[in-house]
Here is the input.
Amino acid sequence: MAVYEIAGLRVRMAPRYPTLTRQAQPYLAADQQGPVHFTLTVDDAFLQAKQAENPHLTINDCEYIWVGAAFYRALLHYDGFLLHASAVMMDGKAYLFTAPSGTGKSTHTALWQRCFGPDRARILNDDKPALRLLDGAFVACGTPFSGKTDLNINSAVPLQGICLLSRAAENRITRLTGRQALAGLLNQTLRPAEEQEMDRLLRLMDRLLRTVPVYALQCNMEKEAAELSYQTMKSCQEGIAL
Amino acid sequence: MKIKPGFMLREIDDTSVVVAVGEASEHFNGLITLNTTGSFLWKKLQQGATEQELVQALCGAFEVDPDTARADTAEFVAAARKAGFLDE
Here is the structure.
């Protein structure tokens, strides 16, 4: 077992297969001795059962997916949750683009990199950033669990805004009310099956919708789409609601 | 009649929403948003009430004439029944 620091949490785990081992490596904690927030263990029998249910996955994939799922379930106990999104960070702020798989989240953040340069616009987590409420404000965090790509950075930066992304011929962005944004966000996180856990998630969603602007972004794959989402989101100075 | 177990009503950013947990979430994994009247009726139905009791409660809590209350209640109950939220 080794100690990792993920989204500001000290996590003990023992990766055995290549993907998780490689992805987790940048998150190894400098201090291996101190106390941890939680331990993630997924035993071989469980992984084999999961693989039997999902024959298209290897045991390596199963470890990566279900250790990730265990991490995000535990995260709810530390004022955090998963958003299925591609997160790009630029000038010290995080911009998230969420949508069902296959819509073009990664395509859009890749456009940011083409538009603003890959050194300035960096992919914090291409698929599953962790959002944490710290001192009254949300930060977006890279994690080792970034879906099919290995694009993630061990970093945490203030969350500037979230777009619910859809494809369209013309680019258009509209600010959403909490009521309009809620269903789109809830569909792109892990929904807990227990009431207590669901309560934690909904309380966080409430805080998120009160403090972080959410937009509907309809976009194509031209560079103007990245210009539009960046210019709109960066200029929003949201006060912290109490 | 009564709301089935597993449905939670919460206020999120000043919006009343209902989500399902436990067994209820196996059949319903969406999200219902309710207006003020809907949220009021839902809370009454969580405790259990007849349609007549709902109408009376609605008239007591809101400035609404009995015919409108009856129509609103009937509409709400029919929708809730159709969506499978009610134990009768």
User: Anything to note?
Assistant: The two ends of chain B are 4 Å apart (CA to CA). The CA atoms of residues 29 and 49 of chain B lie 25 Å apart.
